[in-house]
Structure formats: C-alpha cells, structure tokens
Amino acid sequence: MSTDSCLSCCRSAAVRLAVAAALVVAAFCASAGPALSAPEAPTSEGEDAETGPIASVVVTATGYTAGVESTGKRPGDRGYGITYSGVKVRRGIVSTIAADPKGFPIGTLLYIPGYGYGVVADTGKAIKGNRIDLYFETPGQVYREWGKRTVKVDVLVRGSGRLTEEQLAELGRAVTAGQWLPVARRKT
Question: Less CB within 10 Å around the terminal CB: N or C of the chain?
Fold first, then answer.
C-alpha cells in the first residue's frame, strides 16, 4: 500500500470518527436531556446519514496557554484556566480552542490537521475572523509543537453558543470509543 493511500485511509477514518464525535456535541447542544444511549446505526427508511465535515475553512492557527503570557493570569488568580464558556482548558482527545464566536460559535467542533479535535470553548481579543488559538499547557509546547500556521480545518459541528464540562467529557468519551451516531440530514 502506498504512503498516499495510507494517508487517505487514515484521514477518512479520522473524519468518520470526528463526525461521530460531532454528533455527541450536537445532541447535547440541541437539548439538555439525558445522556446518550448506545450508538445507533443509520436508518434505511430513506433517511440517509450525512457524513463528512459541514465545511472546510482555511484559518490562521496560533497557540495559547492558561498562563500570564497569554491571559495575563497566574495560578491562583480568579478565572485562571477557565475559558469563556466556563469549562477548564485542556489538551487531550478533544482540546479546548479559542475562536471568534461570529464565525465559530462556542461548542463548534473542528478537526485541525497536526493538532487533532478542538472544540471552541474560548474567545480572545486578538482572535477575530478566520483565526483560531489552540490550547497548549506550556509556552514551550506552543513554540516547539505549533507556532503559527495556516491550515485548512474541517468544521464538524456548528456550536449552539454554549458548552459545559459534561458535554466536553461526553465528547471525549465518544471520540475515544469511536461511537457512531447518524448525522441529521442538513437543510439545503
């Protein structure tokens, strides 16, 4: 198998996994109901499941930390490590990122090549338009692992404007487990 076909296969798997994760976020954003049950398969009653990103957008991506160099706050300060949405910053299976809520509302799930899954949980006064800020734990990681890049991101779910710790935790579990839920048909 060629390197190109391996990369294509991996990207396709990543998009499918991202869509599954996005559905978890969409379910939480749509209602405050009980937690999701077991994954369901798409129905064959003429309701095709949509797959793939809602859109792909070219953005300028930079990195930020919870520290004074990015936020002006130090450990122990009120609000240290807390995003605009109220969730704690994190770098993991699904990381918190900052974006302009006019373009990427809070709760929007993105797949960022070279970084992974990011959910918009924060804003920033310098983050306007097609700019995003990716969370890292230390300034050294920002410089060594990211810097400033222009990347094409996949928008997997458009956020509702809110995000909670419970929604973020459920999203992480869904991505880890590779849950698959059918995507509602998009309005055209």
Answer: C
The count of domains in the chain is: 1
Percentage of the chain beyond pLDDT 70 is 67
For 39, residues 6+ apart whose C-beta sits below 8 A from its C-beta are: 20, 179, 180, 181
Is residue 39 pLDDT above 80, yes or no? no
Domain carrying residue 162: 3-177
For residue 7, being part of any structural domain is answered with yes
Q: 86 with 98: CB under 8 angstroms?
A: no
23 neighbors 175 (Cβ within 8 angstroms): no
The C-alpha atoms of residue 171 and residue 101 are separated, in whole angstroms, by: 20
Residue 186 covered by a domain: no
Structure tokens at 64: 């930020």
| 183 inside domain | no
> What is the per-residue pLDDT across 122-158, written as a single tens digit (0 to 9) for each?
998 889 999 999 999 999 999 999 999 999 999 988 8
Question: What pTM did the predictor assign?
Answer: 0.69
- Show the beta-strand stretches assigned E in 65-137: 94-99, 109-112, 116-122, 131-135
Q: Please, which pLDDT band fits residue 179 given cuts at 50, 70 and 90?
A: low
Query: Residue 15 CB: number of other CB atoms within 10 A?
Result: 16
- Name the residue type at position 101: P
